[in-house]
Amino acid sequence: MKTIAELQADIAALQKQIDARKAAAKKGVIKEIKAKMAEYEITVDDLQGSALTNQPKAVKAPSVIKYRKSESETWGGGKGPKPKWVKQILDAGGDIEQYRIRNTDSNPKEKAVKENPNKIPLFS
Hints:
- By secondary structure, the chain is mostly helical.
- It is 49% helix and 6% strand.
- It is built from five helices and four strands, in the order αααβββααβ.
- The chain has helices spanning 4-39, 44-48, 50-53, 84-91, 108-115, and strands at residues 59-60, 67-68, 74-75, 121-122.
- It is elongated, with a radius of gyration of 32 Å.
- The termini are far apart.
- The relative contact order is 0.11.
């Protein structure tokens, strides 16, 4: 049976072999990569993603508030469950349209487009 020192020496020798094989393989891989880069006219900037990161990012506009009962009770009228205050109005036979916001200047999406005309808003 080998001693711990002998096993550690074996590990060190094997690690040297691994490092040598990696270095030899690395040279070949780099050569292949350079050949492919030349073939497809790929630059280092392309690899670093500068072509993708320089594009302007789209601005997601705030959601539209279509109905307002009070400053804290608003609703966009979109997907998902209706807020409690809307359900209460509808259950009582009321008309939600009386709470519709008519002034489009207070619409957050319209504001976002006006404030950033060069940005592309993503409307959801």
